[in-house]
């Protein structure tokens, strides 16, 4: 019987696809990350679901590797952690976890050292302010950049001096194949690249949807997701960031910005949302609080259902025929 574990891509940039990771690959990833930043941790509080590779690898496999207690938590399902443990602990955060983090850390850090790991989505707009306020000897923060297809690829250690433009550093077993000095897709090789369902073996390299500027052989700046970057009247927009900020402003997690073709502007975007209480007018009015030069959507549409991935990312391809299906072909 195969020990490979099947994961499905989130669907935030296209129709989900299935990938297989071996137990050895997952253990290697957990050891690489937790062995460096959380050796000796006695407990893992995971808000990342185990159906997602992040939650499985650093949650279930990671807790086994550490011989640590694992608590599976969920704000969406109102499953909160018990804070009765002792010793160093790890919090596996997703975007929604940051609403609870200040309260959690206030209770934990008085008697335990805590490592907060964030992955699976952009940092929420107020996350860096929380880092700058709470980072210190007892509380450390790291952010991981990864994909279902590749596992974790790069890391940023966040502290009081961190900002959104802080470069990323590759993990030790990842090789950067992107050219240095020019914006290009993030392309890597790694022994942890997953095997696509139906393929005989994993590819030796993978080209991601992420657009980066390689600074040297080990570091790069992340410029956005190629599938969410557009230019409207000469202004470059990262639709993933626009959606993240708008979603928080309107308290609507089921909201997405999607690129559309426009006869006047060539590129434009529309806002899709699913909510019983939010109105299209309220979404349009939210943009009146944004800078005057910021492009506005050409349309705002309520949809009956905008499904979320396991880690809370909207899947607009499932709700709109205008959304391009993006794929991530291994090269």
UniProtKB/TrEMBL annotation:
- Pfam families in the cross-refs: AMP-binding
Q: Which residues form the AMP-dependent synthetase/ligase domain?
A: 8-169
SUPFAM superfamilies with a match to the protein in the record? Acetyl-CoA synthetase-like
Protein name in UniProt: AMP-binding protein
Protein species of origin = Pseudomonas capeferrum
Upper lineage is: Bacteria, Pseudomonadati, Pseudomonadota, Gammaproteobacteria, Pseudomonadales
């Amino acid at each position: 019987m195969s020990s490979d574990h099947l994961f499905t891509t989130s669907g935030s940039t296209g129709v989900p696809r299935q990938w297989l990771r071996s137990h050895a690959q997952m253990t290697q990833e957990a050891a690489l990350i937790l062995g460096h930043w959380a050796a000796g941790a006695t407990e893992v509080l995971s808000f990342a679901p185990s159906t997602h590779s992040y939650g499985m690898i650093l949650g279930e496999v990671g807790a086994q590797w550490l011989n640590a207690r694992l608590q599976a938590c969920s704000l969406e399902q109102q499953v909160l952690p018990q804070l009765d443990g002792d010793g160093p602990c790890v919090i596996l955060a997703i975007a929604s976890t940051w609403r609870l983090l200040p309260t959690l850390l206030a209770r934990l850090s008085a008697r335990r050292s805590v490592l907060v790991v964030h992955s699976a989505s952009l940092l929420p707009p107020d996350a860096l302010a929380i880092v700058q306020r709470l980072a210190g000897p007892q509380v450390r923060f790291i952010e991981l950049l990864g994909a279902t297809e590749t596992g974790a690829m790069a890391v940023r250690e966040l502290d009081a001096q961190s900002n959104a433009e802080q470069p990323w550093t590759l993990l030790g077993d990842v090789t950067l194949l992107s050219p240095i000095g020019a914006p290009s897709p993030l392309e890597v090789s790694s022994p942890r690249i997953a095997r696509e369902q139906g393929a005989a073996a994993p590819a030796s390299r993978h080209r991601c949807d992420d657009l980066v500027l390689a600074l040297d052989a080990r570091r790069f700046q992340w410029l956005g997701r190629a599938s969410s970057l557009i230019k409207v009247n000469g202004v470059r927009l990262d639709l993933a960031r626009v959606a993240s900020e708008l979603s928080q402003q309107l308290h609507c997690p089921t909201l997405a910005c999607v690129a559309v073709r426009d006869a006047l502007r060539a590129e434009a975007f529309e806002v899709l949302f699913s909510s019983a209480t939010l109105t299209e007018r309220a979404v349009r009015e939210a943009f009146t609080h944004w800078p005057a030069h910021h492009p506005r959507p050409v349309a705002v549409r309520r949809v009956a259902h905008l499904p979320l991935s396991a880690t809370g990312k909207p899947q607009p391809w499932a709700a709109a025929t205008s959304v391009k299906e993006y794929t991530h072909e291994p090269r």
